[in-house]
Amino acid sequence: MIRRLLCATLGSTEAVGAAQRIRILKTSAFVLGGLVLAGQAQAAEEFLAGIPRNQVLIAENPEGTVTDPSNFNIWVPKPNGTSTGLQQLCMDTLWYIDPDHGLNGQVWDNSLAADKPQYNKDFTEMTVKLRPGIMWSDGVEFTADDVVYTVQTLMADPGGFNDGARMAANVESVSAPDKNTVVFKLKKPNSRFHSAFTVRWSATWIMPKHVFEKEEKPSKYNFNKPVCLGSYTLKSFDPNGAWFIWQRRDDWQKTTLARFGEPGPKYVAYIDPGPPDKRVILQKNHQLDIIHDTSPEGAFALIKSSPTSHGWFKGFPYAHPDPTLPMVVLNDQNEKFKNPDVRWALALLIDIKAVDMASYRGAATISAIDVPPTGTYPHYYFEPMEQWLKDFTIDTGKRTIHPYDPNVGQDIADTLRPSMGDAIPTDPKAIAAAFGRGWWKHDPQAATELLEKAGLKKVGGKWMLPDGTPFTITISTEGDNRPVMTRAGSIIAQQWTQAGIDSKIDALPTAMWSNMFNGQNEATMAWTVETWGGHPDLSFFLDSWHSEFLSPPGKFQPPRNWQRWKDPELDKIIEQIRAIDFDDPKGIELGQDFIRLAAKNMPNIPLMSYNVFTIMDTTYWTGYPSAETDPYTDPVPNWGNTKYMMVKLKPTGAQ
C-alpha cells in the first residue's frame, strides 16, 4: 500500500522540477507518517479491545516478541517470556531489595516473609517466618508447604530448572515445622543464602505446590494459565507473542502489595513496540506509557517535543543509571592481559570523555571503580573513597603518578552546557549524580612507560609483545543489539590503535556473551559487576569471583568472574564477607578493601553505569519514580521491583 501510494503521488519524477519534487516528497512523508500513526493506533485498539485506554498502563517488553508465549514456567531456562509482566506482576518471593530508595525510603521489603532471615551462629541454618493470610489467585492459601515444595522440586531436577544447581549445592534439607515457618539446613556456612530468594531484578520465585505437584515432570509444564501470588493475573496474550495483558485481582487485598495500597492501573499491558524510532512515535501518540529503553537521540528528541514525556532525571541525562557496570572485560587468563601493568596502560590510553560522547552522547554516569555509581552506592563507596582515589599512585617503572582525575564529571557537564543550557545541572552534587565523579587520566606517556615496564617494545609505531609478536586486541560487542556499548567499543579500539596497539571490534549479536562465558574472547564490552543498588553488600557479584569458582582457560566460567581474575587477597576479602551478617557494617569496609584491590590490579576497565533511557508518559498516569522528587524504585519496567510502581501510579482522568 505504501509503495503504491508513493508511485501514485510521485508519478514520473523526471517530468517535474526539483522544487516540486521536494514538495511532493514532503507531502508523501506527511501522509505516510499519518498512516503509520493511524495503523499503530488501530493496532492498540485491537489488542486492547474492550479495555478503556485510561484504565491500562502500556509498557514496553524489552524482550520484544516472545518466541514461546504460551510457556509461563518462569523456573526453566528459556530465551524470553520473563519480562512480559510475569515476574513483575504475577510472581512473588520472600524478600525484595530495591535498586534505588524504596517505598517510604525502605530499600528492604519483607514480602512473603514476615521478617528478615534468621541464621544460627555459624550460618548453617536459616529460618524464615512467613506472612499469613496471603492467597494464590485461584483462592488457595499460600503456606510454608509451597516454599518447601519449590526448593525440593528445583533440587530434584538441577538440569531442568534455572536455580536447581544452586539449591542442590547449598541445601541439605528444607522443612516446614508449621504452615508459617520454613527451616533450611545448609551444606556449609553461607550468610548470604537468602539472596537466592531476594529480588534485585529477579530471584527464585515460589511455586504453587497445589498446581505443580499434579505434573509428572514439572520442568516440562508450561504453567498456562499462571496461578499468581502477585496482585495481577493474566487476562489475555497474543499467541504470536507481541503482547500480554494483566488484570488487577479482585482480591488484591490478599497479596503482599496490599500493605502499600491498591494498585492504580486496573490493567497492565506489556507489548513489543518495535525498534527505537517506533517506540518514540508510539509514545508521542500516547499509545506507550513506558518506553523501557531507546537511543539517546530518540530520548532527547521525544522529551523536547512531547511535554508529557520525561525520564528518570528531570534534565539531562534523563536516563536511569542501573546498578550494573559496563566495562571492558579483559580475559586475564590470556597471556596479553596477565600483567596488571598492561591492563593499567590500556586504561590510561582511554579518553573517557570521548567514549562518553561517542556512546551516550554525554549522557553516561562514569565510574572509575568496580561498583556502579547508582542507588545508595555514592553514599557508601564513592564519597568515602574519593580522597583515597586522589591520593592513589601507581609506579610506571620510571616515576610515580597520580592517575585519578576527580574533575571528569564536571568537565563533561561543562562541555555539554553550551548546547544543552539549563538541562545541565550546575550544583556539584547534581553533576556527580548525573555524570559521575572522576575517572582515570588520559595519559599516553604513562601508558608507554607501563608497557615498557611489562617488557613490550614499540617498533615502527607499533607495540610488540615480549615474545616479539604484534600486540593486537579484538573487542567483542553485541553490534546493533546494544548500540551504545558498540559505540563505546569502537572509540576505545580507535584510541588503542592510535597509540600503536592494532585493535578492532567484532560485532557478535548472538555469540558475544557465550564467547565470554567460554573464555573465547580477548576483550568484551560487557559487565561482570551487578549490585543490589539499594544495599551496600557486594556479594551479589563478588562471591562468584572467588578462585574456587575459576575455570581453566577456554572452559565455561560460571557467573560472574568473566574477567577470570585470581588473587589470594581477593579470596580473603570474600571469605571475610561470607563470615559476617548481611547487614554488618564491616561489609562496607570489606567492600572498600575490594575496591582498593581492584584499582591496584585493574582486572577489568570499569567505564560507567548502564544508563537506561526509560521514558514515561504522564498523559494517562502520574506517580512515576523520579530522581529529584521520588526515587522510590527503578522505572525500568522489566524489573521484579516494578510491582511497587503500581501502588504509586494514579490515573490523571484523561479520556
Structure description:
With 655 residues, this protein is of the alpha+beta class. The chain contains 20 helices and 29 strands. A five-stranded mixed β-sheet has the order 23-22-24-15-25. A four-stranded mixed β-sheet has the order 1-11-10-9, with no helix packed on it. Helix 7 packs parallel to helix 8, helix 10 (352-360) packs antiparallel against helix 15 and helix 12 packs across helix 13 (428-435). The longest helix is centred in the first third of the chain and has 30 residues, at 18-47. It is globular, with a radius of gyration of 26 Å.
Strand and helix map with partners:
Layout (H helix, E strand, L loop, with lengths): L1 H9 L7 H30 L8 E5 L25 H5 L4 E3 L10 E3 L7 E2 L5 E5 L14 H13 L7 H7 E8 L2 E6 L11 E2 L9 H4 L19 E6 L5 E6 L18 E5 L4 H9 L5 E2 L4 H10 L3 E2 L9 E3 L4 E4 L9 H9 L3 H9 L16 H15 L2 E2 L4 E2 L2 E2 L2 H13 L7 H8 L3 E2 L3 H10 L3 E3 L2 E3 L7 E6 L5 H16 L3 E6 L4 H6 L5 E4 L12 H4 L25 H11 L7 H16 L3 E2 L3 E3 L2 E3 L3 E2 L20 H6 L1 E2 L4
Parallel strand pairs: 1-11, 2-8, 22-23, 22-24
Antiparallel strand pairs: 2-3, 4-5, 5-7, 6-7, 9-10, 10-11, 12-27, 13-27, 14-26, 15-24, 15-25, 16-17, 18-19, 20-21, 28-29
Helix pairs in contact: 1-2, 4-5, 7-8, 9-14, 10-15, 12-13, 18-19
Structural key phrases:
alpha+beta; 5-stranded mixed sheet; single chain; 32% helix; 29 strands; 4-stranded mixed sheet; disordered N terminus; 655 residues
